[in-house]
Amino acid sequence: MPIIFDGQLTAERYLQLLNNEINGFIEDLLLANQVDNYFQKVGSPPHNSHVAREHLNETFPEKCIGTNAPVQ
Q: Is residue 71 assigned to a domain?
């Protein structure tokens, strides 16, 4: 399911996207597949914001791939 929104992606909007859209999708995926997954992000400024990194580190401890992530 593509997620489309108007305007610029900011750190706050990215965090809302993670909380409201992505987390539910990932939880369903994990339950359906019963596998160990990693979350990969790109190096855009909203993805590397403090609030996004903190959220992803809590949600995917040591399993986030990307710039400023536990797995480079």
A: no
Check: pTM over 0.85? Answer yes or no: no
Q: Closest Cα to residue 42, out of 26, 56, 21? A: 56
User: Considering the domain boundaries, does residue 6 fall inside one?
Assistant: no
C-alpha 47/C-alpha 22 separation (Å) is 13
Element (H, E) at 32: helix 23-33
Confirm whether 59 is domain-assigned: yes
For residue 55, pLDDT over 80 is answered with yes
The 8-class DSSP code of residue 7 comes to S
- DSSP class of residue 46 equals T
**66: region left, alpha or beta (phi > 0 left; psi from -120 to 50 alpha):** left
Pairwise CA distance, residues 23 & 6, whole Å = 21
